[in-house]
Amino acid sequence: MGGCYDDSRLPLGGGTHGGLSQHELHNVCFAYGPAFQAGYESLRPSGTVDIMPTLLHLLGYDIPPRVEGRVLFEALSHPAAAPELPAETQTYSAEALTPVGLYRQQLTVTRVGTTTYLERGWVE
User: Fold this and answer.
1) How much is the pTM?
2) 3-state secondary structure of 50
3) Would you say residue 87 has pLDDT above 70?
4) Beta bridge partners of 88
5) Exposure class string for 19-47: b at 16+ Cβ within 10 A, else e
6) CA 64 to CA 67: how far, in whole Å?
7) What residue ranges do the domains of the chain occupy?
């Protein structure tokens, strides 16, 4: 289940683009070929930001320091003895008193190495 605050006057069940529900934030990426493990499914957080560093790694190029994201070593058929980075999840909260009551926004993020992934956001 997911939801977000929206004042667009859409009817119940109407949708918008760009919500913070985990159902809108999580995506799927498939990779095929000898560089990747066949049939492997990773449950570690990842995102489109990781595609470029992974491809640069596979092509043998150095990854410039300005490139964000991480190499998806866990999906590679030959992970090159890369250390498994810990995944640390944290929820942040901010609140404000408004004319209609207390507004509290929650955001959950997961960090893998130096890359941060937005997992979900919601209002209480």
Assistant:
1) 0.77
2) helix
3) yes
4) 111
5) bbeeebbeeeeeeeeeebeeeeeeeebbb
6) 6
7) 28-123
Q: What is the DSSP letter of 113?
A: T
Scanning the structure block, which residue is given the tokens 């990781």? 50
In angstroms, rounded to a whole number, what is the distance separating the alpha carbons of residues 3 and 105? 12
Q: Are 107 and 20 in contact (CB under 8 A)?
A: yes
Hey, what are 54's tokens? Answer: 């992974």
How far is 124 from 105, CA to CA, in rounded Å?
7
3-state helix, strand, coil in the chain (%, to 5): 15, 30, 55
Tell me the CA end-to-end span of the chain in Å, nearest whole number: 14
**Residue 42 three-state SS:** coil
18-54 pLDDT, tens per residue? 677 777 777 788 999 999 999 999 888 999 999 999 9
Q: In what order do the strands lie in the sheet with 87-98?
A: 87-98, 101-112, 115-123
Q: Which amino acid is at 64?
A: P
